[in-house]
Amino acid sequence: MARKQHVAIFTTASLPWMTGTAVNPLFRASYLAKDGDWDVTLVIPWLSLKDQELVYPNKITFSSPVEHEAYVHWWLKEKADISSDFNIAFYPGKFSKDKRSILPVGDITDAIPDELAEIAVLEEPEHLTWYHHGQRWKTKFQRVIGVVHTNYLEYVKREKNGQIQAFLLKYINTWVIQINCHKVVRLSGATQDLPRSIICNVHGVNPKFLEVGKMRNGLNQGHQTAFSKGAYYIGKMVWSKGYKELLQLLSDHQNELSDLQLDLYGNGEDSDEIRDSFSKLNLDVRSYPGRDHVDSLFHDYKVLINPSTTDVVCTTTAEALAMGKIVICAEHPSNEFFKQFPNCRTFNTCNEFVSLTLKALVEDPVPLTDDHRHALSWEAATERFVACTELNEIIQEKPVTSPNPFMSMSPDDWMKSVEEACAHLHNTVSGIEAARCVFGAIPASLQPDEQLCKELGLSSPERKLYLGR
Fold first, then answer.
1. Strand partners, 44
2. Which run of H or of E encompasses 269?
3. Which 3 state secondary structure label does DSSP give 320?
4. Residue 348: exposed, middle, or buried by beta-carbon count in 10 A (0-12, 13-18, 19+)?
5. Of the residues 198, 223, 310, 370, which has the maximum number of CB atoms within 10 A of its CB?
6. 297 Cβ neighbours under 8 A, 6+ residues apart
7. What percentage of the chain carries pLDDT values higher than 70?
C-alpha cells in the first residue's frame, strides 16, 4: 500500500481560547484524519505562562506542551464526542495586546520534519506569513493551501486612519499570500479578492448542535413547546462584533420593538461599555456573561439576532440554524451560504429588520431537512474542502529543469522569477528587527526566547519543535 500523504494544519490560536481559528482547524484536522486518507498533524501556538494568563479563560494554564495537548484531545472527546486520530505539534508564539492576536515567533515551518513536509494548510495565511522569516512555505512544502478566516480589512477600517491602513494591508496580504500559497480558500465573498483563490465555506458545526436541533424538532412534532424563549445574541463583547450595529437598530426603533425582550451573552474588552449603552435603551435588554453556545441555557431560545458584518462566515449563525432556530442577519456576503436555509432571514434596511424580527417572534421555525443538516455538518464541510482544494490529487515530484536563456523565458517563467524575487525581498525585510517593529511585529520575535526554548525543549532555534504523539 502507498504511504498516506501528510497534511499539516497550521493555525493561529488554540483551545481553551474559544475563537474560530482555534475550534475550526481542530475539527478540520479531526475529520480529515477520520476519513483515513491522510496522516494529519495540527500545529498550534505554544504560549509562555504570562501570555496564557492573558489569553486563556477561567484561569486555565498549562505547564508543558504535553499537558496542553492532552487538554485539546480531551475537549474534542468531551464537547463533541469525536475521537482525535491526529497528531498535535506546537510552534512558539507570543500574544500581541495591540492586535489581540497570537503571533508566531521564529521559523514555524520547523514544526514539521522535512520528510513529512508534503501538504500545509495555513489557517489565516496572511496572519501566519506577515512576519515569517525563514524557509519559504512553498519551498519546504510541496503544496500550500491557505484558508482565509478573518476580514482584517473591515476591522482595520474601524481604527484611526483606517482607510489608509486598509489600503496598505490589502496589498501586503496579497503579496505575502501570493508568495507562500499555491491555492487559497476564501470562506465567503466578505474577504478581499486574492490570487489563486476560490470562495467556498469549508466550515461545519459541532455535531452536538445538530443533535439539539433534532431534539427540538422532535418536541415540535410531538406538539410540545420547542422554544419557550424569544430572542438573544451571543458573541465576544467588542463593538466590532455586531454590537454597534445592534445598538443602532434597537435605538432607532424602540417604539416598534417595545415588546421585544433580548438577552445578550458575552465577555470581552468592551463589555462594560456595551452593557452600559444597552441599559440606557427603553427596551427589555438584559446582559449576561458569555457561555458555550451548546449550553442547555440556549436551547429554549427561538430567534438569534446577529447583525454583524465583520465576520467572514459566522459560526454562531451556523450553530443557531443547526439547533433549529430562526436567525435574523444582515444581507451581506458573509451570510450568503446561510441563505439556502429557510430559517435564515436577511435584511437590507432597518424597516426590514423590524419586520423580520417581529414576524420571527410569533411564528415557528421550519424543521431542517436531512440535506440541510448535512450541509451544516463537518462531514459536508470536509467534502467541500477536499473538492475545492483538490486534496485527493497525488503530488508529483517537480522535475528539475535547467534555467531558460534570458530571451526565451515564458510568461510563466517570468512570473515565477518575479515571485522568487518578492519572496527574497520579504525574507530580507522580515529579518530586520527595526523593519519588523515598524510593520507591527512583536519586538524580539525573530527567534524564540530562552523561556520558549526551554518549554518547547529547544536548546537552540535550529532544533526541531515539540511534536506530539
1. 90
2. none
3. helix
4. exposed
5. 310
6. 291
7. 91
How far apart, in whole angstroms, are the C-alpha atoms of residue 45 and residue 185? 22
246 vs 250, 255, 313, 356, CA distance in Å? 6, 15, 18, 14
Radius of gyration of the chain (CA): 23
HEC profile for 302-319?
Answer: EEEEECCCCCCCCHHHHH
Classify 190 in phi/psi space as left (phi over 0), alpha (psi -120 to 50) or beta.
Answer: alpha
pTM for the whole structure: 0.88
- Distance in angstroms (rounded) separating the CA atoms of residues 245 and 63: 41
Compute CA distances 74 → 69, 82, 255, 376, whole Å: 9, 10, 48, 24
Query: Could you tell me if 5 and 39 are in contact, meaning their C-beta atoms sit under 8 angstroms apart?
Result: yes
The residues with which 46 forms a beta bridge, in sequence order, are 92
Strands 261-265 and 229-234: parallel
Residues 381-432 have pLDDT tens digits of: 999 999 999 988 766 544 444 455 545 566 766 677 787 888 888 888 888 8
Give the Cα separation of 49 and 451 in Å (integer): 10
- SS3 call for 224: coil
**Residue 324 in contact with residue 216, Cβ under 8 Å?**
yes
Q: Residue 57 gets which letter from DSSP?
A: G
Contact 380, 371 (CB under 8 A): no
Who's near 41: CB < 8 A, 6+ residues apart? 6, 7, 8, 9, 29, 86, 87, 88, 89, 112, 116, 467
Asked if 16 and 71 touch (Cβ cutoff 8 Å), the reply is: yes
Grid coordinates given for 281: 435603551
Q: Can you say whether the dihedral through the CA atoms of 304, 307, 309, 310 is positive or negative?
A: negative
Residue count (the chain): 469
CA atoms within 13 A on the CB side of 125: 32
Round to whole Å and give the CA distance between 329 and 184: 27
* Cα dihedral value 418, 423, 425, 431, nearest 10: 180
Q: How far is the C-alpha of 52 from the C-alpha of 57, rounded, in Å?
A: 9
The amino acid at residue 114 is D
